[in-house]
Design goal:
By secondary structure, the protein is α/β, with parallel strands linked by helices. About 35% of the residues lie in helices and about 15% in strands. The protein folds into two domains: about 10-40 and about 90-285, Rossmann fold (3-Layer(aba) Sandwich); about 50-85, no CATH class. About 35% of the residues are buried.
């Protein structure tokens, strides 16, 4: 299955299905944008809104209608003003990885890695939009409708790591979805540069079960995405334990360079439905 195995309309349908798989997934929009990482959400400052933030002393110049008379009645000498949180829609910037390696799909996977990343990206955009937030692709200056984003996600994308030289608005949140099988030092450098622009990030590493477990038996020929033979093995079972340790070490390196920036990290297997990782993200952010 390749990057073009889903048409934009089919991608929109799959994303809608994942977003609506459980009613509580609608809560993901607010929870994800409120605290993708450990950073303070930009909304949490005083301003017009409905959510209570704090009481403070009344000072000359405050409007009389801002006084909370019930709270002030508890004090003989002080007046208190009720402050609410400023409610401004925030922007989430979404990036999904590409390259030939993302086209891989084993027999037990529901989708290829690239299709899984497309579904997750659009599902999150839909959920964020329903929560009153704005979502767009990291490498595009426009705010996309779900239809536009579906077409954009289905276009060819060969970047295996997110671009470093991009403008990120203040308080924006970053969502990066890919397999991140690059050398760990390259991934760490990319994440480090982007984290200097935002402390609010979410990384979803998408891997095929065959990449995690090496389920093959007997002799095997391994090729790279371009078809070049990389290795010939007479007995794959004999290297399974060493391979499992190596891929787990790689995953841990990606996780470490993610959390070191203050961002959140999740691993998603392509034999698991997309809504499973959405639910997991929501549970961890609640």
């Amino acid at each position: 299955m390749t990057a073009f195995s889903l048409k934009p309309g089919a991608l929109r349908h799959e994303a809608e299905r994942a977003a609506l798989a459980a009613p509580d997934l609608l809560l993901l929009a607010e929870e994800t944008i409120r605290s993708l990482g450990t950073g303070e959400h930009a909304r949490r400052r005083s301003g017009p809104g409905h959510n209570f933030r704090q009481f403070r002393d009344y000072v000359p110049g405050d409007l009389p209608r801002s006084i909370d008379w019930r709270r002030s009645a508890r004090s003989d000498e002080r007046l208190y003003v009720r402050q609410t949180e400023e409610e401004k829609p925030q922007t989430a910037l979404i990036w999904r990885g590409g390259g030939p390696g993302m086209d891989f799909r084993s027999k037990s996977a529901l989708h290829s890695k690239v299709v899984t990343a497309q579904i997750l990206a659009l599902s999150l955009a839909i959920l964020l939009g329903r929560g009153g937030e704005r979502a767009r692709m990291l490498d595009s200056p426009e705010i996309f409708s779900p239809e536009d984003m579906a077409r954009y996600l289905c276009a060819e994308q060969n970047q295996t790591l997110p671009p470093e030289h991009v403008n990120i608005p203040a308080h924006a949140h970053l969502i990066l979805i890919g397999d991140f099988l690059n050398p760990p030092e390259q991934t760490a450098a990319a994440f480090h540069d982007l984290s200097a622009k935002t402390r609010n990030g979410l990384v979803i590493q998408v891997l095929d079960p065959a990449e995690l477990e090496l389920p093959y038996e007997g002799a095997a020929v391994f090729t790279d995405p371009e078809g070049t033979i990389r290795a010939r093995l007479s007995d794959t079972q004999g290297i399974r334990t060493a391979y499992a340790q190596r891929i787990q070490d790689h995953i841990e390196q990606v996780r470490t360079c993610t959390t070191r920036t203050g961002w959140a990290y999740h691993l998603h297997r392509t034999d698991s439905p997309p809504e499973a990782i959405l639910r997991k993200i929501m549970e961890n952010q609640s």
